[in-house]
Amino acid sequence: MKALILNSGLGTRMGVLTSQHPKCMTEIYGNETILSRQLRQLNDYDINDVVITTGYGEDVLKQYIDSLNISVSISFVNNDEFKSTNYIYSIYCARDLLDDDIILIHGDLVYENSVLEDVLSSKESVMIVSSTESLPEKDFKAVINEERISAIGVDFFENSYSAQPLYKLNRADWSVWLKEICKYCEVGNVNVYAENAFNDVSDNCCIFPFDIHERLCKEIDTPDDLDYVKKHIDLVENRIVYVSFSTDIVHSGHIKLIKKARRLGKIIIGVISDEVVASYKRFPMLPYDERKALFENISGVYKVVKQETLSYRDNILKYKPDYVVHGDDWKEGFQKPIRDEVENLLQDYGGKLIEYPYARDIKYALLERRASYEQRIINIENKYDILDNWLKNYHIKSLLLVCGKNVEYHPLYKHILNMRESLGIMVTRFSDFEPNPKYESAVKGVELFNCKQCDSILALGGGSTMDVAKCIKLFATMDNSMNYLSQRIEDNNIPLMVIPTTAGTGSEVTRYAVLYYNGIKQSITHEECIPSMVFIDPSFLRTVPDYYRKSTMLDALCHCIESFWSINSTPESKAYAKEAISIILDNEEAYLKNDPIGNVNMLRASQLAGKAINITQTTAGHAMCYMITSLYGVAHGLAAALCVERLWPYMIEHTSECVDKRGERYLTNTLRELATAFDCDTPVEASSKFSGIMRRVNIKLELKQSGISNDIDKLADNVKQERLRNHPIRLSKEVIADFYRQILE
Ligand SMILES: [Fe+2]
Fold first, then answer.
1. CA 515 to centroid of ligand 1, rounded, Å
2. How far is the CA of 641 from the centre of ligand 1 (A)?
3. Judgement on whether residues 395 and 295 belong to the same structural domain of the protein
4. pLDDT of res. 93
């Protein structure tokens, strides 16, 4: 799209104001002229290809534009007959440059940003009109017939609206009009308006009126017009626009929103206080003062103020913004009541809520996810009021508590059940599920969630509890007449909070959920599985039975090892895994002895390992272990460790069968890096160190012996293929069967 600005005229009605330069160089406020404002506006809306017709004062005009330093590409077209022709002839002179969609603007036109924005977003060809302004004596009016403009001129008063020469013209319509302009000029009809040519072809040139009501869009023909515009532009530019931010990572999506808000007036940014951010989201990485300074230094921000509550009330009443700007993501979910309040407050005095489409770009989601891993994990041991405040701020009214019986002894469980009295939150408990939960259990949970009209889910328990809770969240908004597993997962705003009571699965930070359907493991992978909030209370770990304590530690360690060699590994995933391995090795003894420090550290290690597999997914170890769990009820972590123990030495010897695209040498180096992470000199030594841990942990496999050899084929046939695909070396069915044989016989 190109812009065409008509600046050839003499501007004689402006008197002395245009004696030294063309009319478009008339100042309207500060150093801003009609033209500099037009060019900045076009540039701001990414229209960077501009044709300007010149005539009177051409040299002064060119010099002036040069001095403006605005990065638009300008083609000048001189109308050397400017004294004796009208702008129809200027357009004719520029005709060869106009083969495009065109924004046609008269050079003396001043309009507010939103007018240009609306014109640009129109799909049809449009001209600006105002249904509220009285019809001018001498200026343009547009005649409307069957919703279209049938004629434009100064002499039409019937069925007319006051009109301004700002057009958006689609190429097809424009070419009809331009052709007619050329016809006029070629027979010497050069002293009429270009609109006369339009009137002759309006049946074939489809221009719609775009009604701006009272918004500013006015030509400056006389000193009186200039006074009017100066007065109104001052009001337009000084409108207050309020935008609230809780973020501490300012990315291009936020900058885009600020840029859009800036077009509406002077931006006041409300920065949400640390306490409030921590209470509903995560503790901010940057404290309030730094976030304030960050926003103060963004171009175009007028002022930054503190917002002390999630509600906008105090700041709206204080600053009376003309506009509040927000993404459209708060029309549903926990932010809806806040939005409704904003709308009501604005309505009281005629303010307006402007909502732009929320930036759902995956790169922003990933950025926020990375930042939020750490920050949305809050320790609430002996500080249950943090949990209470969070729930209050999220306006939680009806909570589905997913937990097993084994947490009933704990004061936090009692605290949650008591929330009906203490916070007025309905709490519905769901415990009808088993370890390694079945699909049917999640279905029961969904029924309860919907029947009790819950608005949020809190999982209190280990990996299985979190799996069930994640699935209830995913399924709750699906069609209950069909199998949930066959349906597409959509985003939903149901807050999912978790309080992990074991250290190992890392499920509290991952996008994975596991269910068993007809005895077969189903892995569900979706960003919606990642809990909104993780509250930790390490005191839960004191009562984890020995068997599960050991098994979950092995699970975390297997997550580290498998993510390390996964074909999806990245420097980031390896860094998480290395740190987690180091913590696990340092805290193995303390954790297994149930030492409080060991417990806290193991919780941290399992979350780091969770972050690693969140990036890479698991590999053959996990692909193989699920059937062992399914057939023999062996704890997941132990089953995974038994598989990894067999896999690791095999891999060291079979790097030549590498399928990782980064090649065999990369894999060999990875195995060396993994050895270093285990504080060993060689991969063989590291793999033996892992076996040493297995011996120390000393959990015996108690399998029913009979018929095991018959199971081998079944096991090997049911290895999870999608996990196997992440493994860096090829594993044939025979090799896998052999691993199973070694484990089971
Ligand atoms: Fe696992």
1. 13
2. 9
3. no
4. 95
How many whole angstroms from 594 Cα to the centroid of ligand 1? 21
Examine the pLDDT at 716 and tell me if it is beyond 90: no
Tell me the CA–centroid distance for residue 559 and ligand 1, in Å. 6
Residue 177 lies in a domain: yes
Q: How far is the CA of 555 from the centre of ligand 1 (A)?
A: 5
Task: Let me know whether 628 and 675 are in one domain.
Answer: yes
Whether 478 and 611 map to the same domain: the answer is no
Q: Which H/E stretch holds residue 269?
A: strand 266-272
> Is residue 490 one of the residues assigned to a domain?
yes
pLDDT bucket at 704, cuts 50 / 70 / 90: low
201 Cα: distance to centroid of ligand 1 (angstroms): 72
d(CA 485, CA 502): 27
In a domain, 229, yes or no: no
Give residue-wise pLDDT tens across range 436-467.
899 999 999 999 999 999 999 999 999 899 99
CA distance 239 to 350: 13
DSSP-derived letter for residue 582 is H
- Last residue in a domain, options 222, 257, 272: 222
330 with 430, same domain: the answer is: no
Phi, psi of 636 (to 5 degrees): -55, -50
Give the chain's domain count.
4
Distance 444 CA to ligand 1 centre (A): 25
505 CA → ligand 1 middle, Å? 5
How far, in Å, from the CA of 436 to the mean position of ligand 1?
A: 11
Which is higher by pLDDT, 700 or 582?
582
Instruction: Indicate the residue among 362, 385, 415 that finishes a domain.
Output: 362
CA distance 254 to 184: 50
Domain that holds residue 622: 545-744
Summarize pLDDT for 390-411 with one digit per residue, the tens.
888 778 899 999 999 989 999 9
Neighbours of ion ligand 1 (CB under 5 A): 555
435 CA to centre of ligand 1 in angstroms: 13
Pair 528, 659 in one domain: no
Residue pointed to by tokens 């770009």: 361
Within 10 A of 462 (CB to CB), how many other CB atoms are there? 25
Instruction: Output the CA 635–ligand 1 centroid distance in Å.
Output: 10
Please report where in the chains the tokens 């949020």 appear, as a residue. Answer: 456
- From ligand 1's centre to the CA of 466, what distance in Å? 13
Are 388 and 427 spatial neighbours (Cβ–Cβ below 8 Å)?
no
Residues 150, 91 within the same domain: yes
Asked if residue 414 is part of any domain, the answer here is yes
322 and 335 together in one domain: yes
Same domain, 473 and 569: no
